[in-house]
Each structure stands twice: as structure tokens, then as C-alpha cells.
Write a sequence for this structure.
């Protein structure tokens, strides 16, 4: 099994490690130290060696921070993690504060005393976030100071796992669709357009995309950790641990890419003296900015030039996504068939459900990894948005409960991410009503046509309006970008209430995942991935429009739909979708599954 | 009649005045001069004496600019005015450029030569806009220079009309709902919260609201032109031309408001030496910032502190709006009755239609002014978004045409703004289909419920999605704020594709006006004003929601609706609205009109 069900951390982490960190702080003359969730690569999912926040506090969420002072400490989490943090972190040692409302800045302003010095590791903070923290500390009369050596790492010492060294391999043209030399030339032009000589690229997904390589340094995503300097002429220096370099790699990278050891990076930055170097202040840490400025380079602060081209998948990548989703659909349909038949009476627990789903995906023979740990939440566990079943939390399904399963796979040709909510036994009228409201939002966001320039912020309301009309809502974003055999969360586009200025463009893949959560009772989410389609004329219309093609192919549980709440357009849309699912998956599954699927996808 | 039908300007304006302006520029040693549309008060609608752009170029739109150089000139308009500008401005003298795409900045960068000096009147430009223009001129190696005396005003000379001197009168508590002393105390607290000692307020609508006064210096809106300094203790100095001060005014303003001559303002700003003074850099001109800085005051750049409180109407203002709309509805229904009966065969022209509507509004006995010049556009004229009928453009209605009428009134208790589109004779299938799409958008935006924090940008798509689905769209905002017996266009909230961070809050009045325009053929717009309702629980829901109450009461032309295109919810919504119209207006109109109204508002 790829997924495990152990608790990864608990309050003992903070109890044991906090004194060690404070001792290291004292040796360095610090009154405090900042512990962000992000690592040297600003990763969302971290190698164990870089999960400093978990080691220091016990908290393992995908976003957060801690501040450790001499005599007190605080951990910061967002609304998704308020339950989890109480289970994982010792409330006597760490005050729990909101990451968004006030956040670390407000705490520094409140808690610091004049003259105090708080250390930070400049390799872990982006300049954008650091500027806000520095200003807050100064308002309290205190100061932040870069620590040349991280006191937490010192405290961790020998016990700290080694840096990951997963092999880095070529990602063939059949999947990437564009040779690296062409990508580098395009991005080189973009660097020139910013009036820069070179770009420093540190985001692992950008490195993977630019050089058509994949690694495995970060669990659940094939990311190679490294850095690159790309010059405006398209040549590059790529810094990777030699232990990760596979035999084919140098030839694959070609003459224009110099493969170098990580230790050579600092000298390479010094070589940029007098040049204009583009760096993304939201993705690259302050250490790079300091090093470039010290070297006498001129830093051009601009978005990572690979971010938008990477988000706009080319035709080969879109076709790969279709193939990957059709393959994943076979596993999903077998899984849903099992849930809809045998499991209705065997009432499996979440761990078994998770294992079954992983098993069906393994049977495809193409599974490289899960794209994230499966969330299988039965009954009240389904209402915990970032739930992951463990042996401690594991819950058995029961008659009349809802089961929410959010899962995804990494295949060479694409990354999937899908949520289905399934009734075990007879669902209540309330469950069905709310499921149908969520479905109406999902359908509205699935069928919208829109002109160029439209952002994800503009269309978010379509997924929420049916819930709002009944006095309901959900407290997470409606959609995130997804990579092509890369991260399952990828910007810069997203669909959410928060303002976002990135227009939805052809080839971008986004999730469509409205939900409803009743704390202590059940959770509902319906999630499809969909790709933005090219600008096409509409019969009888005047202006060509963009739109979405749904990639995910898996039936929606009919037992949870109140058909009378759907209008004719919605019914036709769902029937057409179910017909697509049957046509794609039907011929690829065994007879009993196909018979079940025919019923599950029959017109409403 | 209040509205006139003469052409207000034509290409002869530019031909006659451009040489005079260039001569004045030469006397001042300038290579160019900037002519914004805005005046000293950053007004949208201008007193004739301040419409410098029209005098210089002939262009009379509500937004725009010109740049006059020694040997060339350009006029800048947005997409709404591309047809109008060609009729009003001599294309041989002025290059026509897009105000939004590139705008004045791009022109300055292209057209200026190194060393050139371009003058501007610092009383006419906000610092926000000026900063961009200065940077553009500098990129061309040229410089902008403040002109102590405006060369255009010198060129205009004796021919320039005098500044308006309309009487300024008290606006009673029955309409304003909150005493000025309380408003000043509230805003004083807001000034303190910004850590300032005083605020300089120059927006006429803010002055009118803060002191509960109304004037008439600007056509179509009861604005008093003046300035005020409000201290954090709630006391104020108000600068108004003594010729405008009516007998009751000093007592109405009370002891805490010193009424002073405009000439005293400069010295009053000098009195602020050493103090922190809040000024809005988007509403107050650069001249005020320069004067305050010269005086040794510390300028705090922040939004006008009256803008949000003014936008959130209190219960008395909301009730006033309801009363004003019910009164206006009587005039509208009489007008629509005439259009739906007699006019169907008499086929009146746009001028007669405009006069009739004004006549019905006069009959209410309460009309203070129109809130803007009525747009009555028959057939192809309806497709010109900012059309105003003149004797030159006047067009007779014809069988099978559409008539778009956008109009509004100023009453003491409220400002109205309404658009109805009416069929003359038998409309085509295409007209009906497109009208129904516009209606679906209007209904969706009318019925939406939403949580606190939702902005107008978030809900805009609701009004557009039905059009987008058919490959159609409209090129204007969906909704603007409206004042309470004040400006018919009022921020800071608005409903549009463009990002806007101001949340919709209870008491805010916004328009809901999707449209469709077929150039050379016809225009469709349906516009209601609606007020944001208080947070209320929804039966069976968990979270209280905001919503809208439609203020406008006038039937939607049933002959233009394709009933099959509406779902059950939309039909019920329109039927309920029509029932409200009948219940409110029916008892207040004569029998033949009532009989027609019963038919016009019968359930679909």
C-alpha cells in the first residue's frame, strides 16, 4: 500500500522538541524563532526532512506556521484545520491562532517586547511574506534577524532524516508535448521582454516543466528539488544532487543545459554580477534575493515566467489528461460499483475503503503514485474538510450515512483529482436536498461559457448560488489548478471568492468542487476536473466563447438527487454526462460492473 | 421642458478653440497641455463653465480627455463613445484614441519629444491619475509642469460662462434620516481611527451628505460645489460662495460649522500646519495635496471617510427610496400605457417620447429634476449605449421596432433610474429571444442571496451567463450605485466584471441593468434599482444571507418574452414582481391605465 494510516505526529512532538529548539535559540542569542510551513522550495507537500513545523509542534496540515518565543509559543492554522490542530498540538505549550485573520504579523506585534530579536531562516521565507513580518516586529520595537544556521535544524540534529534523493528521469515528448529547447527559447523571450538577462527558477514544478523531467523528492508529486538559472538565450544551468541524476539525464538535457552540483549554486549567483535577474518574490525565498544583491546583480521582481505557460496545457497534455482520466475512471467505476453493491451491506470502514480504491488504481498497471492521500470520510468524518483516515480516527460506514471520497492519481500522462459522495443505505431527505444543491452548483460551473478575460473569481458564484439561496455555503475554494503529472494544486488560476486577476485560458485545468458540510453529521462534495476549451463560435451567437470540458468520468449517485429540484437544462446536462461516462468506461469493465454502470448512468 | 434636444457641441468647437488654446500655451512657454474631462470637483456631470473638454474639442461624453500639443492633438474616449466622438470632433485636428487601452499615458510616451514641457492644471487632476501621466512623460524624456493659470481658461476668456450659483438649502431630517451633528461625530471617529486630526472633503456629494444640504450647481444632480475641513471632534469649516447661501442655512448648519467664503480656503489649509490631514487621492485634486504639503501639514492618503456611510442608506433613506420609486412608477406606468396603446399606431419620434415621459413625471408634482437626460432610442439608436436624442438624430418609431427608454428622476426623497425596452408593433423572433436572455440575467441578479463580504464583481456573472451561453454579451457595467437625492452614479460599490473590493452592504442601492445591442438594428436593456436587504435567516438554512429588494416598479413588456425560455422559478419571480407593480400602481392610476396595467402584469 502507498497510503498509510498511522498518526504522523502528535502533541508529544511539541513537548519533546520545543525545549531543544529553545536551547538552540539561546545559544544563538535569539528571543524567538519563526517556523513557517514552507520549506526551501516553497513546497506545499514536504519531504519529511523539511517538515519543520510538524517536528516542532505536531501539526501536519498543508498550511500553517509557528512562532517560538522564550516563554511562549503559538501555532497558526486556517479554518480547515481548527479541529486537527487541537488533536495534534499541546494546547498548554502552543496558543492556537488564526493564520488568516491577523496571522503571524498580529501575533508578533502583540507578543514581542521592545529590543527583542527574533530569528528566521532566510531560505524558508519569500520576501513578500517576510516584508510583512518585519514591519509587524518593528511596530513592536523588535527586530527580525536572518539566522545563518537554522536553530531548529540544529536541535533536530542527527534525528533529522536525510534530504530525499529520488532519481530524476526524462519526461518524454509523448507526455510533455513540447521539447525543452522550445520551452526554454519561449521563456527566454519572456525574460527578454522583462528586460532581464536571466531568470532564477526555484519552484520544483517549474523546473520539472521547463526541462521535461520528473523526480520523486516530494511524496504524491513527481517533483525534482533543485534550482535553475535560465538565460535569455535559452541556455541554462541546472543544479541537482548528483545522487539523483540518472544515466539518461545528461543526454536528455542536451548541450545547452549544464548539469551542476547544488554546492555550485552560490558561486553561480555570484557570476550574475551586473546582470538583471528575474526572480519571483512569492515563490523564491529571501535567501536568493540576498545572495543576488550581495553578488551585485540587479533583481527584477516578476512572476515566475514558466507559471502561465505551464498552466496552459498544450494539445498533447490535454489529450494525455483525457487518457489518464479515462483510465482512472475504470478504477473509479469498479470502486463505485463495489460501494454501490457489496459495501451497502458489508459496511466497510474508511481504511478498507481507502485500500480498495488504491487497489483498483493499482490494477490499471499505470499508477505512479496517488496525487494525495485519499480522504475517505464516513458520516461525521466527511464534514472535516481536510480529513485523512488513520487507525485512530477510522470509522465504519453505517446504514443511512454518507461517504465522501476525495482521491486522485499520478499517471505519466496526467494527474487526476475527483470527489464523489455516496449514500450507504437510505439517505435522509435533508441529505438528498443538500446533495442536489451542491450538484446544481457543480453543473452550473461545468456548463458556463465565458469570454476571454474572465477570471475564476468571476465564475465562482455559479457554484455557490444554489446553496446561498437556501442559507448554506462552504468554506473552501471552488477550484484549483492541476498540473500535468505534476502537483495536484497548481496556480496561478483558481476559482474562489477571493479576487484573482488571472484569466481562465484554453488548456488550463481546474477543479470544480462545491460542497456542503454539516459538522458532526456528514459532508458532501462533488469534484470534477475540467479543462478550459478553445474559443469557439456558438450557433446563432456573435462572440466566440471559452468553456469547460469535463475530464473526470464517474457517475454521480442518483439516489442522492432530488430530480424535481433540477430544471430541464440541468437534467439534460447530467444525462449527457452520464452517457459519456457509460460510453467511455462501459466497454472497459467486466459484465457485472457494466450492468451496474448502465443503471447508475441511466437518464434521470 | 427640462431636457433640450439641441446638439451641445460640434466639430466647430475644436476648429475655433484649438488655435486660441495653442496661442495661450505658447505665451506660457508650453509644448502641450492636458485637458481632462473632470473639473475642480472631480464631477462626472459638469457645469457648462467647467466643461473644458467640450469647449476644446466638441466632445460632450461623460468621460474622456484630450492632449493638445503644438502641432497635433488627440482626444480619448471609451468604447461607449466611439460613434459619438466621430460626430462631434474634427478628425483632422484630433486623433481619436482609446481612453482605457493605453489611454493618455501611452500617447504621451509615444508623442512627446525629449525636453518638451507639457502643462496641466493641478486643480483638475487627482494625484492618482497624475502620477501615471508624469511617469509616462518622463519615459519620453519630457516633463509635466503645473500651470498656475490654466491656458485653456485664458483662451476661453470672456466667453466662458460664470460659475454656477444655485441656492444651497437644508435637506430635512425626514429625508436624510440622520442629523449632521451625528454624521460629523461618526466621521470624526473614522478620522481618528486613521490617526488623523482632520479630513479635507471636496467631493460635492460628500459635502451634501455630511451637512444635510442640497444645491443645484450641477445639472441633473442637487450638488453644492464647495469644500469642507472636518475635524476629528466633529466641528467643520464649510467653504461656499456667499451668493449660494440661503437665509435658513447658517442656523441649519449650527454653531459647530463655520460657513466661510471660498477665498478663505487657502488660508484655512495653511492653518493645518503640523496636523495630520486625511485626503482622498482619487477624489481630491493634486492642488489640495500640494497646498497642504506647502503648508507643512502631513497628508494621510485614504478613501473619503463619508463614501461608505453615504452609500449605506439608513432606514429613512431606504423608505424614501421606496416612496420615490412608487411615485415614479405612476408616471412610468402612464407612459408605458401610452406607448403600449396610442403610440403603437401614432408612431411618435424620440423627442415626443422623451417629452411625454417628462410630462408624466411633472404631473407627479414632486419632480425636482431629471436624474439624467432621458435616453429614448428607437431601432438602431437604441444600440448606441450613451445615446441622447437631439433634433439631428431624432428618429421616428416604426412598426416592428424596439424602443429603449432609460430615464430617471430626482425627488426630495430619492433618485430613480430605470430602463424599459418596449416593442412597437410585432417584434421579431430574434428580438424576443435576446430580450428574454437579458431578462433572465436581470432576474438572476435580482433574486440572488449572498453572504456578507460578497462584492459586485462576484455576482456580475449572474446577469451575463444567459447571454454568454448564446455567444452574446454587453460592453458596459451591470450596476452602479445610486445616491439618495444625489448623484445617479455613486460609488464605491458597483457590479461589473472589473475587480472591486467593496462588499455589498445593507442599504446600498445599485442598478441591475444587463443589455444587448445589435449595432445598426436595435438595443435592449432592462434596468431596475435594487437595495441590499439586511442579513436575514432563510428557512431551513444555517447562515443568514443578504439579498436585494427591487425598488423600481414598472411592467416588463410581455410581448418580448419567450415564456418557454423561462424556468418555473423565473416565471414565479416575474409574476410576483408584476403583482407588486399592480398592487402599488393600480390604485393610483385612472381606470383605462389600470385596465391596461392589469393586462400588462397578468401572470405569464
Amino acid at each position: 500500500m502507498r497510503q498509510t494510516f498511522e498518526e504522523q505526529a502528535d502533541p508529544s512532538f511539541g513537548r519533546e522538541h520545543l525545549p531543544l529548539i529553545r536551547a538552540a535559540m539561546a545559544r544563538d542569542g535569539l528571543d524567538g524563532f519563526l517556523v513557517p510551513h514552507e520549506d526551501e522550495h516553497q513546497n506545499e507537500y514536504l519531504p519529511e526532512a523539511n517538515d519543520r513545523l510538524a517536528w516542532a509542534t505536531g501539526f501536519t496540515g498543508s498550511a500553517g506556521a509557528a512562532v517560538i518565543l522564550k516563554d511562549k509559543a503559538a501555532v497558526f492554522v486556517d479554518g480547515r484545520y481548527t479541529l486537527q490542530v487541537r488533536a495534534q498540538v499541546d494546547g498548554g505549550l502552543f496558543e492556537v491562532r488564526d493564520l488568516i485573520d491577523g496571522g503571524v504579523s498580529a501575533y508578533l506585534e502583540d507578543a514581542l517586547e521592545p529590543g527583542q530579536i527574533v530569528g528566521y531562516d532566510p531560505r524558508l521565507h519569500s520576501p513578500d511574506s517576510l516584508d510583512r513580518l518585519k514591519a509587524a516586529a518593528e511596530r513592536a520595537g523588535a527586530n527580525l534577524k536572518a539566522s545563518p544556521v537554522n536553530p531548529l535544524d540544529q536541535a533536530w540534529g542527527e534525528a533529522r532524516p536525510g534530504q530525499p534523493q529520488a532519481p530524476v528521469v526524462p519526461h518524454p515528448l509523448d507526455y510533455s508535448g513540447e521539447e525543452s529547447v522550445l520551452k526554454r527559447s519561449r521563456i527566454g523571450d519572456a525574460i527578454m521582454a522583462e528586460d532581464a538577462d536571466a531568470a532564477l527558477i526555484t519552484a520544483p514544478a517549474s523546473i520539472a516543466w521547463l526541462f521535461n523531467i520528473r523526480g520523486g523528492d516530494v511524496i504524491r508529486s513527481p517533483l525534482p528539488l533543485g534550482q535553475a538559472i535560465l538565460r535569455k538565450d535559452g541556455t541554462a544551468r541546472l543544479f541537482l544532487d548528483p545522487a539523483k541524476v540518472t544515466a539518461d539525464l545528461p543526454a536528455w538535457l542536451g548541450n545547452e543545459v549544464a548539469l551542476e552540483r547544488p554546492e555550485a549554486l552560490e558561486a553561480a549567483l555570484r557570476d550574475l554580477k551586473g546582470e538583471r535577474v528575474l526572480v519571483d518574490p512569492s515563490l523564491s525565498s529571501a535567501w536568493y534575493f540576498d545572495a543576488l544583491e550581495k553578488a551585485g546583480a540587479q533583481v527584477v521582481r516578476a512572476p515566475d515566467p514558466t507559471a502561465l505557460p505551464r498552466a496552459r496545457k498544450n494539445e498533447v497534455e490535454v489529450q494525455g489528461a483525457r487518457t489518464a482520466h479515462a483510465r482512472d475512471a475504470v478504477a473509479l467505476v469498479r470502486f463505485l460499483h463495489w460501494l454501490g453493491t457489496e459495501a451497502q451491506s458489508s459496511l466497510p470502514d474508511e481504511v478498507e475503503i481507502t485500500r480498495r480504491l488504491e487497489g483498483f488504481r493499482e490494477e490499471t498497471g499505470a499508477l505512479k503514485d496517488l496525487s494525495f492521500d485519499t480522504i475517505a470520510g464516513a458520516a461525521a468524518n466527511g464534514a472535516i474538510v481536510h480529513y485523512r483516515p488513520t487507525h485512530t480516527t477510522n470509522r465504519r460506514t453505517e446504514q443511512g450515512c454518507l461517504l465522501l471520497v476525495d482521491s486522485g492519481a499520478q499517471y505519466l500522462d496526467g494527474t487526476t483529482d475527483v470527489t464523489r459522495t455516496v449514500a450507504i443505505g437510505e439517505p435522509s431527505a435533508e441529505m438528498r436536498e443538500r446533495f442536489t444543491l451542491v450538484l446544481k452548483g457543480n453543473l452550473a460551473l461545468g456548463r458556463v461559457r465565458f469570454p476571454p478575460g474572465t477570471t475564476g473569481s468571476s465564475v465562482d458564484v455559479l457554484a455557490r448560488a444554489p446553496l446561498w439561496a437556501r442559507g448554506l455555503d462552504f468554506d473552501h475554494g471552488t477550484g484549483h489548478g492541476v498540473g500535468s503529472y505534476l502537483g495536484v494544486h497548481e496556480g496561478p488560476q483558481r476559482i474562489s471568492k477571493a479576487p484573482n486577476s488571472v484569466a481562465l485560458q484554453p488548456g488550463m485545468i481546474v477543479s470544480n468542487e462545491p460542497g456542503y458540510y454539516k459538522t458532526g453529521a456528514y459532508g458532501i462534495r462533488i469534484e470534477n476536473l475540467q479543462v478550459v476549451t478553445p474559443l469557439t463560435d456558438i450557433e446563432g451567437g456573435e462572440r466566440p466563447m471559452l468553456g469547460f470540458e469535463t475530464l473526470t468520468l464517474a457517475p454521480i449517485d442518483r439516489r442522492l438527487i432530488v430530480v424535481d429540484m433540477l430544471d430541464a437544462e440541468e437534467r439534460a446536462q447530467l444525462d449527457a454526462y452520464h452517457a459519456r461516462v457509460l460510453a467511455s468506461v462501459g466497454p472497459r469493465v467486466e459484465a457485472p460492473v457494466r450492468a451496474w454502470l448502465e443503471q447508475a448512468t441511466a437518464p434521470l
